[in-house]
Amino acid sequence: MIRKLQEPDLDKIADIWLTTNICAHSFIDAQYWHNNFQAVKKMLSQAEIYIYEDKNIIQGFVGLNNDYIAGIFVRKEKQSNGIGKQLLDFIKNQHTKLTLNVYKKNTQAIKFYHREGFKIKNENIDEDVGEKEYEMIWER
After folding, report:
1. Residues 123, 104: contact at Cβ < 8 Å?
2. What's the domain range around 33?
3. What is the C-alpha to C-alpha distance for residues 50 and 61, in angstroms, rounded to an integer?
4. What is the pLDDT of residues 59-118, one digit of tens each?
5. Which secondary structure element, helix H or strand E, spans residue 78, and what is its range?
6. pTM for this model (two decimals)
7. CATH number (domain holding residue 46)
8. Which residues does residue 119 pair with via DSSP β-bridges, in sequence order?
9. Could you give the number of structural domains in the chain?
């Protein structure tokens, strides 16, 4: 089931954010994610968040800022089970255009977004970590 974020969900999704980022971005020092944890947790409480829940357990979520996907995060043990696709399809139904940034070295995520109809628009450098990233776009 997909639903909107509720206040009691915040700690759980913040933990998913942290562990997923550390696992998916082994090319970035884990301390970077730990250092940004509290700031991101505060931003999550103010963002448009949709939760994927199964048997009352949060398995993943997507964060939006208007038409920008701040991220899709799925528990490591639940990845490759269609949860990310369900979250993406859910927000595609509400938008005619979506954009996102993804690190160039995160090839698994790039393949996922390509498969889901996203195209690379630009290549940039994330100044915070010095890594190349793609700006990707999807349009209905």
Report:
1. yes
2. 2-139
3. 5
4. 999 999 999 999 999 999 999 999 999 999 999 999 999 999 999 999 999 999 999 999
5. none
6. 0.93
7. 3.40.630.30
8. 137
9. 1
